[in-house]
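User: Please fill in residues for this 178-position structure.
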C-alpha cells in the first residue's frame, strides 16, 4: 500500500535556490561573520519577497527536498554503522533548536522534528506537513534552520565544510545528465 506522503508524489520545488540559501548561511557561519549573518537574513527575506507566492512555495518545496535528501544520506550512513538515524539526528536537532529561541520558537520545534522524522522514515516532508494545512510565516525560519542544521551535521560527520552542498549539486548534475 502506498502512502499519501510517498516522495515520488512530492513536488521537488526550487532545490537550487534552497541550496544557495543554505550554502551561503553555512559559509557565513563557518567564516565567523556574525554581521554577515544578519545581512544574510535580510537578503533572504528580500529574495523570498521577490519570488511571489508561487516562488515561495517552490522555495519551500525545494527546502523540503533538501531535508529529504540529507536525511536519506544520513540514514544510509548511520545504517552502515548499525545505528538508527532518528535516534542520532533528531535529539541533537531538537536540542540545538531549543538553544535558538530567537530564531526557532518552541512551538515550531515539534513540526520541524516531524519533518525530519518523516524524511528519515522515507516519507516526503512537504507532503507530510501538508496534512496540517498551509505553511505559516512563523515556520519559515525554523524550516531554514532545520535544513541548515542537517547540512552542518553532515559536514561535521564528513569533516568537510562543503560536503553537504556538493552532495546536492552532484545529485542535481546526475539528474540533469539522466
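Assistant: Residues filled in for all 178 positions:
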Amino acid at each position: 500500500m502506498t502512502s499519501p506522503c510517498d516522495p515520488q508524489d512530492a513536488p521537488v520545488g526550487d532545490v537550487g535556490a534552497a541550496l544557495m540559501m543554505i550554502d551561503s548561511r553555512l559559509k557565513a557561519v563557518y567564516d565567523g561573520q556574525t554581521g554577515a549573518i544578519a545581512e544574510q537574513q535580510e537578503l533572504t527575506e528580500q529574495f523570498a519577497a521577490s519570488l511571489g507566492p508561487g516562488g515561495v512555495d517552490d522555495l519551500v518545496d525545494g527546502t523540503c527536498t533538501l531535508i529529504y535528501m540529507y536525511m536519506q544520506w544520513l540514514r544510509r550512513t548511520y545504517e552502515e554503522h548499525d545505528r538508527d538515524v532518528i535516534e542520532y539526528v533528531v535529539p541533537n536537532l531538537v536540542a540545538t533548536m531549543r538553544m535558538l529561541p530567537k530564531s526557532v520558537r518552541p512551538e515550531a520545534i515539534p513540526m520541524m522534528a516531524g519533518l525530519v522524522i518523516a524524511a528519515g522514515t522515507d516519507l516526503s516532508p512537504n507532503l507530510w506537513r501538508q496534512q496540517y494545512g498551509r505553511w505559516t510565516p512563523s515556520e519559515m525560519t525554523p524550516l531554514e534552520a532545520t535544513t541548515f542544521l542537517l547540512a552542518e551535521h553532515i559536514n561535521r560527520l564528513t569533516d568537510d565544510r562543503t560536503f553537504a552542498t556538493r552532495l546536492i549539486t552532484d545529485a542535481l548534475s546526475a539528474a540533469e545528465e539522466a
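For context: The CA atoms of residues 69 and 127 lie 15 Å apart.
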